[in-house]
């Protein structure tokens, strides 16, 4: 196929639909299509984006697409190979009025995943300032179809003081372009490449010591690629790798991650990591202070004690995660108290997130906040909320009373031969339904209790659970196939003794 006919597209090139920079895909085929005259470009569209097939048409396969209906054939004139970064900057900032959509897009990346508006959006004073690109320090050209940096000297002359650049949703894919960009913009410190599909091939490139924050969210990044680029980005303070479908942290020797001597924050949220052994490979990143692991598939946490030091002989005293202060574990599958207790072993840990895990969800038999506060003796921030001295004191008192009330002994870590210690080990799960006419409308509660809990203790708990002031209760157990609930009369008898096990439903009524 001639270059003229193909409009100089190449296989693997990132393109967008003409007139729609948000509909982005990758060129997978160039050439004729049976039964259709002229030249065609086969495109595999990101996230489907209105595709029609999987790369095959009328029984012939032209290429293999990512999805069953993510591909389509388009005329070269219906596609755009993008524009240069200088052209995009001129289009974005040499205007007299910003649309609301443009204002909404102009933000800087924050580690809390919140949009922080940059200072130059919207005012006449700022507009005057933007007429002089020399003073531009932050810029966003998200979803503008940017595919190249243009002549490096032109970019350097246009925005000589640019420190933050947001390239979200553009057409970059090759690392030499990124290297040239960082070299041309010496003051650049923050580079956001979110939603650019980056290739895994990395040629040798110079050290890019100016970049402090690199954002590679949803870029198709593997850890093998991270290992390839870490020498170039050796001075990173923050590395964001959200939504890359990462499952394993593959190091050259299969052991610990090396380098990144200045890395303070590593964001691995919304990936597919399901084994804590992968996280242990990060143990000796000496400067690491924040590790974001929300929305993965982790089932437990174990402090990596007795690990061999990976460093030189003089580094024999290295401590795993010695400077880690923030560990975000929300929305995982952690269901063990032993995992909560393990967090106490991290030397510097002060900020923990456990929300949306079974262990921290009382509706699933997990622990309420006060129990977590009591068990995490050093934590100062839990699930985004500060733990005040008063809350800690009251939580520890309530937890001690709860253990004494139920006769619960402190859980101790089990040996490796006996398997993981489950949070609910030895407890039974029962559902409590409040039906008394004077009690008001109450939602049913599911609680986990020791089988030795007496009926009398359960009555007292129900009065507390449902806030039944000055109301004496009686309890009935509902049994499948029995139309009349059975009254639980003897206060001194235990749940186990009356045959109540997990899954039972207890009806809470008021005494007549």
Automatic annotation (TrEMBL):
It is found in: Cytoplasm. Transmembrane segments: none annotated. PROSITE patterns: CAP_GLY_1, CAP_GLY_2, LRR. The keyword Protease does not apply. InterPro entries: CAP-Gly_dom_sf (IPR036859), CAP-Gly_domain (IPR000938), Leu-rich_rpt (IPR001611), LRR_dom_sf (IPR032675), SDS22/Internalin_LRR (IPR050836), Ubiquitin-like_domsf (IPR029071), Ubl_TBCE (IPR044079). Residues 31-75 form the CAP-Gly domain. Supercomplex made of cofactors A to E. Cofactors A and D function by capturing and stabilizing tubulin in a quasi-native conformation. Cofactor E binds to the cofactor D-tubulin complex; interaction with cofactor C then causes the release of tubulin polypeptides that are committed to the native state. PANTHER family: LEUCINE-RICH REPEAT AND IQ DOMAIN-CONTAINING PROTEIN 1-RELATED, LEUCINE-RICH REPEAT-CONTAINING PROTEIN 9. Belongs to the TBCE family. This is CAP-Gly domain-containing protein. It comes from Paspalum notatum var. saurae.
